[in-house]
Design brief:
Layout: E1 6-12, E2 26-32, E3 40-49, H1 53-57, E4 78-85, E5 95-98, E6 105-109, E7 114-116, H2 133-145, E8 153-156, H3 162-173, E9 178-183, H4 186-194, E10 199-202, H5 208-214, E11 218-223, H6 228-234, E12 237-245, H7 249-252, H8 264-268, E13 272-275, H9 285-297, E14 305-308, H10 312-323, E15 330-334, H11 337-340
Parallel strand pairs: 8-9, 8-11, 9-10, 11-12, 12-13, 14-15
Antiparallel strand pairs: 1-2, 3-4, 3-6, 3-15, 4-5, 5-7
Bound molecules: NADP nicotinamide-adenine-dinucleotide phosphate.
NADP nicotinamide-adenine-dinucleotide phosphate binds at residues 51-53, 133-134, 137, 158, 160-164, 183-185, 188, 224-225, 246-250, 276-278, 322-323, 325, 327, 331.
Region (Disordered): 1-20
Domain Enoyl reductase (ER): 19-333
Protein name: Enoyl reductase (ER) domain-containing protein
């Protein structure tokens, strides 16, 4: 495939205030495509992962990664194919995963990319789903941070999202656990029930807090959303409960962050609340991939994708749709929707 001399990318134009991103946050532009040097490759981007963390990467604050700078290509994980190579590591046509960014072509050192094969019985998109960061987050979050034991009561918020769907099904597959899945619509709750969740709760439905209290005490809370719900759960944790601080999406766009009040419950219940970042477990990713692939092969892990087409024009709408709760499963932008072929 001929490599063009120009690249189209989406760069950060204005650092957004708190609140949802708008099209003005970014600018789409054409820039010269860098010629690859020794050890470098050119990758044509095919699929981009859209993640809640992207909103945090736009904020100039201390975090696990530096913020995206004004004028820089928007950071994003993605999958693509090598179209030109000056490295022994990859040949033209190889499928690779890396921080490819919101652009049509990525040029850089081959050593920062990971080779990927289309998974047996699956599709390449799975490397952005249950075999990607979402799967790693779910696995290490529930087992290493949540220390899930047989017969425990597990509550998962954001249960119909990319990470939540996986956590829910890991917990359902775990012996004798009672699995409580929380999501934002009846439709999502129905699907979670079909996946085996024992209790499904729509947090947008009247009487939600009462229904959650009726579930009884909680051993593990896998928190994807933060905010007021965390207080509701803190009020009903069991002794030695573990709260897995995975994410706080309810707070990423808000002008008034919620101040959690019931943390003293952690003292009286001798409980732990621990944050984590999945990237820290990179050396153990093969262990998580083996576990999740086995679960999928046994039919105990069903996964879904919210694929937004349009390539670079789909990135901002996809991010908005995810924050609006339109996705079930992993949100992905495809440059060619037909190529995405999600495994449903
Ligand atoms: N610690 C880590 O290493 C790590 C890694 C990856 C992701 N995360 C975190 O994990 C969480 C889930 O990420 P994901 O990629 O799986 O995203 P996701 O759940 O697929 O997508 C976001 C979902 O969050 C829900 N949501 C949006 N606004 C909300 C609000 N105000 N209150 C409650 N729910 C809201 C929506 O579902 P509903 O319809 O149910 O509202 C939406 O579909 C995020 O907080 C993310 O930052 C952490």
């Amino acid at each position: 495939m001929p490599v063009p001399s120009a690249n189209t990318r989406v760069a950060l134009a204005n650092r957004p205030e708190r609140g949802p991103i708008t099209p003005k946050t970014f600018r789409k532009e054409s820039v010269p495509l860098k010629t690859p040097g020794d050890g470098e490759v050119v990758v044509k981007v095919e699929l981009l992962s859209i993640d809640p963390a992207m909103r945090m990467w736009l904020v100039d604050t201390r975090s696990y990664l530096p913020p995206v700078q004004i004028g820089e290509t928007m950071r994003a994980n993605g999958l693509g194919r090598v179209v030109a190579t000056r490295s022994d590591r990859f040949k033209v046509g190889d499928l690779v995963h890396g921080t490819l960014g919101w652009q049509e072509y990525w040029v850089g050192p081959a050593r920062v990319l990971e080779a990927r094969e289309v998974p047996v019985g699956g599709n390449e998109i799975d490397h952005l789903g249950f075999l990607g960061v979402s799967g790693m987050t779910a696995y290490f979050g529930i087992f290493d941070i949540g220390r899930l034991k047989d017969g425990e009561t597990v509550v998962i918020s954001g249960a119909a999202g990319s990470v939540g769907l996986i956590v829910t099904q890991i917990a359902v597959a775990h012996p004798h656990c009672k699995v409580v899945a929380i999501a934002g619509s009846q439709d999502k709750c129905e699907k979670l029930r079909e996946l085996g969740a024992h209790v499904v709760l729509n947090y947008n439905q009247q009487g939600f807090a009462g229904r959650l209290r009726a579930v009884g005490n909680v051993d593990v809370y896998f928190d994807n959303v933060g905010g007021e719900l965390l207080d509701v759960i803190l009020a009903q944790i069991n002794p030695y409960a573990r709260i897995v601080m995975c994410g706080a999406i309810s707070q990423y766009n808000t002008n008034k962050p919620y101040g959690v009040r019931l943390t003293p419950q952690l003292i009286t219940m001798k409980a732990t609340m621990q944050g984590f970042i999945a990237f820290d477990y990179e050396k153990r990713y093969p262990e998580a991939r083996a576990y999740l692939s086995d679960l999928a092969a046994k039919g105990k892990l069903k996964y879904d994708y919210h694929v937004v087409g349009g390539g670079l024009d789909g990135c901002v709408p996809a991010m908005q749709e995810m924050f609006d709760g339109k996705n079930y499963g992993k949100t992905v932008v495809a440059f060619d929707e037909k190529e995405a072929k999600p495994k449903l």
